[in-house]
Amino acid sequence: DFKKIKSDGSVIIRNGNVSNRKHGKLIADINADILLNENELKISDTHANINETKFNIKGSIDKNSVTDISMSLIHMPFKGFFLKLLGYEAVKNLDIKSGTFSLNADLKGKLDKLNIKLNASANNLNLMDKASKLSVKNKVLNAKLFVSPESIDGTVQNNGLNIFLPMMNSVISKDNLEIKISKDDINIKPANIKFNRYSTITLKGDIKNYSKSPYLDIFLDGKISTKDLKRVLGREASFYIKSNGVLPVKVRVSGEQTKQDITAQILTDSANFITPININSIVGKQNIFQAKLKLYNDKLKISKTGLYSKSVATEFSNDLDSNILNAREVANV
Asked: What pLDDT does 73 receive?
């Protein structure tokens, strides 16, 4: 509490800089007017340049430790900032063509019970890995977060994500994504992700108790067009592949921080399939390709991974274990 401290004075800075040998000038043109008067702190006309972008701070802390401080940073370019923050070796293969970052923060209330309001955004991100040619473009990401001693309430919204995967000759895109953040949990709202031209997969999930003992439960459910899969294989390989229709796909990732279970299934039948060879015993039947993995302390265990065939077609449900009940194992890994 400021009432226990007797303080008077001021801090005046003009044209200050912060730099180091490795990254050069990190913060430039620091100008500050900080006044301590009768146990009250006032910040006025205080600003600096971070990566050629003006950072402003103003506000006060009164003698009862009641705080009212605001900060802002508007449209700071990512290019140059990553270099200064991470160093040349970390970013030398990144070609950052565009992108800006903005932040507004308000701190209000007693110092020991602050209410913090954050608004952050990233706009027009366009970067490419020079070695792999993998590129990421994103129109806008907005994040709003309110933190109080009792609760956390936040929302992250993203629009216009586009990822080009050159090794797969494929594009992953997502128009809208929303994530809700509370004191204990993070919830990913159902979001449709496009793969190449014809395929769509819905992503949803939760991270429970993320601040103490996080538990992940992510589920993907959709259909992948065989046309899009043949694009991944390339023109020459596709010549030898028989295919038709769309393939229903389901993936579940669940587990704790050091242990996760991953199960993925792809359904085929007489009208929807992709294969380089015909296996007479499964032609015309409902078949499931399954991969079942367990990650534990950096170790990988593979089980029940292979091709399963069903003599009687059943619903392709979200209960992945039930999908291969009474199915005959045709091949395994």
From this structure: 95
pLDDT in tens, 84-102: 777 777 788 899 999 999 9
DSSP string across 246-265: EEEEEEEEEEESSEEEEEEE
What stretches in the chain show pLDDT beneath 50? 2
What does the DSSP assignment read for 123-172?
EEEEEEETTT--EEEEEEEEEEEEE-SS-EEEEEEEEEEEEEEGGGTEEE
148 phi and psi angles, rounded to 5 deg:
-125, 170
The H-or-E segment that residue 105 falls in is: strand 94-110
Q: Within 10 A of 280 (CB to CB), how many other CB atoms are there?
A: 6
- List CB contacts of 273: < 8 A, sequence separation 6 or more: 226, 242, 243, 244, 245, 247
Residues 6+ apart with CB under 8 A from 142: 119, 120, 121, 156, 157, 158
Backbone torsions φ then ψ of 228, nearest 5 degrees: -70, -35
pLDDT digits (tens, 9 = 90+) for 170-185: 999 999 999 999 999 9
Contact predicate 166/153, CB 8 Å: no
